[in-house]
Amino acid sequence: MNPIVSVALPVYNGERFLFEAVSSVFAQSLSDFELIIVDDGSTDRTPAIVSRFAQSDARVRVIRNDTNKGIIPSLNSGIETARAPFIARMDADDRMHPERLAEQVAFLEKNTDIDVVSCLVEKFSETGIREGYSAYMQWLNSLCTHEDMRREMFVESPIAHPSVMTRTDTIRCAGGYQDHGWPEDYDLWLRLLRSGVRFGKVRKVLHYWRDRQDRLSRVDDRYSLINFHRCKAHYLAGLIKKNSGKVVIWGAKRKSRQFSSLLKPYGIEFAAYVDVDRKIIGTHRDGIPVIAPEGLRDYSGYPVICYVSADGARRKIRDFLVQAGYTESVDFFMLT
C-alpha cells in the first residue's frame, strides 16, 4: 500500500546536518510517509549516513547519483520516484515541526481547490539572522492566502521552497523543475500560478529554515539578483504580450530602467516612465517621456510595471493605482 506523502530530500555533502534533518522527519506525528533521499554524488560521510537510515527504517528510499548532477535533476528524480499523492520538500539542513506533514496533508485534503501548500517558517542560524532576512521573513509570513501570494508573485518568491507540499500530479503535469539559469523553485511557482494553480498556507510555524553562509542560494549564480530579474521578466513578458505588448514603467531611475531592459528581448515596448521626482518629470529617458503619476490618464490601456524596492512605497503606489481604477495582476504589477 502506498504512503500518503512522499518527502523529497536531496543532499550533497550534507554530513554536518543530515542526521538532524532526517530525525525531524522521523519525529512526525503522521507516520504514513516515505522519505526519498537523493544523494547527489556526495564525497563526504553522507552515503554512509543515508545507508544507516535506510537499513533502520523501511520508509527510507535512497537514490544515488554517480556524479554531482545538481539540485534540479535530483529533485526531479525524487518526483519521478514518489509513490504518494502528495510530495513534501525538505532540505538536508532544515528541521520540520512534528506536525508539519499532518497539518499540510489535512489542509490539502480539506481544500481540494488548492494544489500547493506552504506554512509559516522560522529562520535560524548559528551566526545570527541578518536584518534583511528578518524583513524578508516578516514579509513571507504575511502572505497567507492565494490572493496574497499571487499579488506579490513578482516581488519575491512568496513561499519558502523547503516548506512546500504539493499534489504529485500537479507538479508532474507542470513538468517538474526546469533549468533556465534562474531559481528553479521561483520558476516553478510562476509557471504554476500562470496555469491557474492555487496556493495556500497553514498559518502555523511548521518549518525551521537554516541560514548558512555556504547555502546554495548564496553561492550558486542561478540565485543571483540578475537571474531573479531574468525569471521575472520572462513570465511578466508573457502576461503583458497577451494583452498589449506596450507598458508604462513606474520608476525612471537607473534600477528600474535596468530591469525594463530585460523586457525588450521579448518585444515589450515602453510608452512612458512614471516618477514623482519633479526634477525629471517632463524630461525623457532613452527617448521615452517621464510623466507624473497624474499623467497616467493619458496612457490608459497600458499595463503599469512598478519596480519599487521599499514596501511602504509599494503600498502607496498600489493605493494610488487602485483608486485610479487599475486592477492588480491585470492592469499593474509590483516588482522589486
Automatic annotation (TrEMBL):
TM spans (from-to): none
InterPro entries: Glyco_trans_2-like, Glycosyltransf_2, Nucleotide-diphossugar_trans
Keyword hit for Transferase: yes
Lineage top rank: taxon: Bacteria
Record keywords: Glycosyltransferase, Transferase
Residue intervals of the Glycosyltransferase 2-like domain: 6-162
A single GO molecular function term of this UniProt record: glycosyltransferase activity
Hydrolase recorded as keyword: no
Alphabetized PANTHER family for the sequence: GLYCOSYLTRANSFERASE, GLYCOSYLTRANSFERASE EPSE-RELATED
Family: Belongs to the glycosyltransferase 2 family.
Protein name: Glycosyltransferase
Organism phylogeny: Bacteria, Pseudomonadati, Candidatus Auribacterota, Candidatus Auribacteria, Candidatus Auribacterales
